[in-house]
Amino acid sequence: MSHAIDVTDADFAATVLKSPRPVVVDFWADWCAPCKQLSPILDELAATYDGKIDFVKLDTNANTSVPAQFGVLRLPTVLVFSGGEVVKQFMGAVPKLQLRKALDEVA
To answer: For residue 90, what are the β-bridge partners?
Structure first.
């Protein structure tokens, strides 16, 4: 079963922007209650889309450059990258059905 892997400011470009597959990036923080609600949903979706879409998590407490670069001001924020570009964006606790619909479009 696949799950989201952790990325940092240092390896974000190599892991996300240069990925041959679409990548879902979960911007989170340990103090964020909606982030904790969203995390198991993203892990479940990572298993569903295993081999088609990669899932990563970026801790915004420890990594501040990438969130600033992409204008992440609210948590949780989920950005979907394809070809190094943001193609979908979600803020707040997003229902699984809404995420699935969006991911089906990029898978």
So the answer is: 78
Length reported for the chain: 107
- Cβ proximity of 32 and 59 under 8 Å: no
Pairing of strands 77-82, 5-7: unpaired
Which class would CATH give 5-106?
Answer: alpha beta
Give the residue numbers marked as catalytic. Answer: 32, 35
Question: Taking the CB of residue 90, how many other CB atoms lie within 10 A of it?
Answer: 18
For residue 105, the SS3 value is helix
pTM, two decimal places: 0.96
Q: pLDDT of 76-98, one tens digit each?
A: 999 999 999 999 999 998 999 99
CA 60 to chain centre: 12
The CB density around residue 16, as the number of other CB atoms within 10 Å, is 20
Q: Are 59 and 28 in contact (CB under 8 A)?
A: yes
Domain positions in the chain: 5-106
Sign of the CA dihedral 66, 72, 77, 82?
Answer: negative
